[in-house]
Each structure stands twice: as structure tokens, then as C-alpha cells.
Design the sequence.
């Protein structure tokens, strides 16, 4: 009876703790601005457009293309280029204001990893019924973990003085470590591997030798005149040789 | 049993219809052209500009009668050394790539802002000639005054680039050499013992 009451109290205490539990949340927000290159002179009102949200215009199609990089591999810390193709199906020319991008975690887009520098254009326009291509060069922080991330790229443009925004890419990129084949770690690992293999080989060689020695019968070894003790010769008794050999024996 | 089969068939048809609607984009070629220009200073002091243009077709159908024209290099500033600033091809299939390059010699000094190259092509569904522009190029500082390179700049650059790798390999080689070769002092001790 007492045990039952104790158990009930114990579980009740545990249940009471539930609203007080705080789940540890990990927030990875590494925001690093990377210096990008600019084409032409900067517009005065460009700051109004950077970081804002507009709707896409109906007569505009965008496409994103990674030249010579169909696997979308981005080395961390090095410049990568992507091409933004714009098609103006409408009747009025459109002016490109800026191209910006940001890197997010693939499973949660609210987790911002890095905001990339916006490329501002001064005199870039796409006439009606034409297609145009614009480059966007970016570099990710070299401390980024090599894994898949989500890259969201948007282009802000204006048609007849009203701003619009289109997302030209919302997909995954593969971030890899930049660096050649020969590095401190790889050389160390390779040498360690070779040395371990050599050690193993030597150990196996020793084992073989020992096994072969055991099976070999003890062969007679010719010693020569060493076995005959010179002090046994009677004609040397009492001479200087006998005395000196006894002295050396004492020393030993 | 018959109604069940009919229901599942209807559902399959609806799914296929929606799938086709979702994936149906304009069946036209999308020309993405990448123009790159780089400066090379020759030993004689003259400067060469190498221009390369890559044309990709990222659309879903073939583009016919492709013609590339790059008029952005004025005659008074540049001379054509090799190649031609214009070229034409018969077709570019979807997912294909066309490349063209030429070389120019710079005559005048100053900043040069290049305009994009123009690519024209035809598509079966429209009669008018379609136009596409390539990427613009970064401003080129033509025949810029370069400060003379200090004495060992090239050595410093090589060191900065390959220094760490060379040092790692040399440490490893030295270590192996030390282990493999017997030292002179131990050899002398052995010879003394024998005597």
C-alpha cells in the first residue's frame, strides 16, 4: 500500500515537471559578408531594394545555370560563378537592379547560414522579346562544413519604375573543401599507412623465421680450435701464459 | 469490381494530367551565353585580349541558324589578331554547348567597358528572328601602368603557394632517410668493440 502511494507520487512529480522542460535549441547563424565584385557605378536608391520582398512579374522567365559545373559543386572559400538567364516575354524593357543570394540549411529554410553579397547593376536592361544572361560570382566562407546546403538566389528588377523580384534558384548545392591532394593531413596519413604495412610485413617475416627455426633440426656447428683449452696443455704449466690466463679469469 | 477499376483509372488519369500541366513549360530554347575576356601582357610590352564566348541552350527545343556577333570592340582601340568577332552555326540542340574565341591587340590605353555580344537564332514556332544577349564583361584596364616587379616576387609567390606542401614532404623524406641509414657514431662504436 505504501509502495503504491509512493509510486503514484513519483509519477505525479515527473508529470508536473513537463511544462518546465526546456528543449535545447541549436541556432546556427553564421553571417559573414564576402566581398564581391561590382559592375559599373552603384545606383543611389539601391539600398531600398536590397533585402526587400517583391512579387515576380508575369512576363519574365528566369533560369539558373552553373557553367561547367553540372553537379553544382562549390568549393568553400573560392570564387564560384553562376549564370542567370532572363527572358523578357512582355512588351516593356526591364532593368536589372540587383542579384542577391543566401545559403540555408536544407531541412529548415529559416536557418540562415550565410548571406552572400548582392551584385548591383547600373545599366543592365533586357529589351522586350529577348533573352539576356547575367553573371553572379560568389564565394562561401571557407569554414563551411562540406555538405549539401540550400542556395536561394533572387533577382530584383523593375519594369516601368515598379520593382519586382524573381527567385532564379532554390535548390541544393554541394559544398566541398577547397584544397589540393597534397596536404599535411593526407601526407601524414599516407606515410602512417605505409609504415604500418611495413611493420606488419616485418612481424610476419619474423614469425616465419621463428617457425622455420623450430622445425629445423639443431645442426652441428664447427667451432674449430676454440674448444681446446690451452691451459690443459701440460707443457705450459708454470709458465707466464698460465699465470696471465688465471689473472684474466679472476678479472672476469 | 468494374467500378473499382474505373475509379483507379480515373485517379491515374487525373494524376497524369496534373503532372503534365505542372511540368509543361514553354517549349522553346533558352540561350545562356557566357562571355569572358582576359588580358595578357606580352614581353614586348603590347597587350592582348583573349575573348571566349560559350553558348549553352538550357531550353527544351533546338535553336536553328545561330549567329553570334560581338561588335563591342571598336576599331580604334583594338585590332583583331586571330579569329573573327562573328560566327554562325546551323543549330544548337537542347543541352548543347557552342564555343567561340578570338584574340585582339589593344592599341589605346584606358578603362574599357565592354557591351554584351548579341546572338540571334530562329525557332520553328515564331517567324521573327530571336535575340539573346551574353553576359557583360568586367571593366578592363587596358595597357595599365604596372609597377616593376621587385627582385624576388616570383620566389615569394611560389613559396606562398606551395610552401606548406614542400615542407611536409621534406619532413617526411628526412625522417625516412634518418631511419633507413645507420648513423656514423653507432658504426664507429661497433668497429671499436670488434677490436
Sequence:
Amino acid at each position: 500500500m505504501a509502495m503504491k502511494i509512493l509510486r503514484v507520487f513519483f509519477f505525479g512529480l515527473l508529470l508536473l515537471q513537463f511544462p518546465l522542460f526546456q528543449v535545447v535549441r541549436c541556432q546556427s547563424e553564421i553571417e559573414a559578408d564576402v566581398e564581391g565584385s561590382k559592375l559599373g557605378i552603384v545606383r543611389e536608391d539601391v539600398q531600398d531594394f536590397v533585402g526587400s520582398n517583391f512579387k515576380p512579374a508575369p512576363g519574365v522567365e528566369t533560369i539558373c545555370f552553373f557553367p561547367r559545373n553540372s553537379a553544382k559543386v562549390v568549393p568553400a572559400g573560392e570564387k564560384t560563378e553562376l549564370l542567370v538567364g532572363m527572358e523578357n516575354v512582355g512588351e516593356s524593357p526591364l532593368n536589372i537592379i540587383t542579384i542577391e543570394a543566401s545559403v540555408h540549411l536544407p531541412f529548415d529554410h529559416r536557418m540562415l547560414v550565410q548571406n552572400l553579397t548582392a551584385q548591383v547593376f547600373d545599366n543592365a536592361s533586357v529589351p522586350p522579346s529577348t533573352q539576356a544572361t547575367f553573371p553572379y560570382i560568389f564565394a562561401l566562407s571557407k569554414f563551411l562544413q562540406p555538405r549539401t546546403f540550400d542556395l536561394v538566389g533572387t533577382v530584383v528588377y523593375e519594369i516601368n519604375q515598379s520593382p519586382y523580384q524573381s527567385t532564379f534558384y532554390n535548390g541544393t548545392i554541394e559544398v566541398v573543401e577547397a584544397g589540393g591532394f597534397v596536404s599535411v593531413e593526407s601526407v601524414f596519413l599516407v606515410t602512417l599507412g605505409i609504415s604500418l604495412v611495413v611493420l606488419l610485413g616485418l612481424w610476419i617475416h619474423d614469425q616465419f623465421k621463428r617457425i622455420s627455426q623450430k622445425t629445423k633440426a639443431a645442426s652441428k656447428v664447427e667451432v674449430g680450435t676454440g674448444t681446446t683449452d690451452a691451459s690443459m696443455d701440460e707443457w705450459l704449466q708454470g709458465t707466464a701464459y698460465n699465470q696471465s690466463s688465471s689473472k684474466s679469469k679472476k678479472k672476469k | 469490381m468494374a467500378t473499382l477499376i474505373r475509379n483507379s483509372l480515373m485517379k491515374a488519369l487525373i494524376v497524369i494530367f496534373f503532372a503534365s500541366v505542372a511540368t509543361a513549360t514553354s517549349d522553346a530554347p533558352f540561350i545562356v551565353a557566357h562571355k569572358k575576356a582576359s588580358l595578357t601582357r606580352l614581353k614586348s610590352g603590347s597587350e592582348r585580349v583573349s575573348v571566349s564566348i560559350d553558348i549553352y541552350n538550357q531550353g527544351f527545343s533546338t535553336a536553328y541558324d545561330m549567329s553570334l556577333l560581338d561588335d563591342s570592340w571598336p576599331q580604334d582601340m583594338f585590332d583583331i589578331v586571330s579569329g573573327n568577332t562573328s560566327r554562325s552555326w546551323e543549330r544548337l540542340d537542347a543541352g548543347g554547348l557552342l564555343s567561340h574565341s578570338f584574340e585582339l591587340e589593344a592599341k589605346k590605353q584606358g578603362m574599357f567597358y565592354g557591351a554584351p555580344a548579341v546572338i540571334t537564332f530562329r525557332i520553328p514556332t515564331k517567324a521573327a528572328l530571336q535575340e539573346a544577349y551574353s553576359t557583360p564583361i568586367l571593366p578592363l584596364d587596358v595597357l595599365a601602368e604596372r609597377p616593376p616587379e621587385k627582385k624576388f616576387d616570383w620566389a615569394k609567390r611560389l613559396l606562398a603557394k606551395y610552401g606548406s606542401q614542400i615542407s611536409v614532404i621534406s619532413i617526411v623524406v628526412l625522417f625516412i632517410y634518418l631511419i633507413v641509414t645507420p648513423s656514423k657514431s653507432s658504426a664507429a662504436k661497433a668497429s671499436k668493440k670488434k677490436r
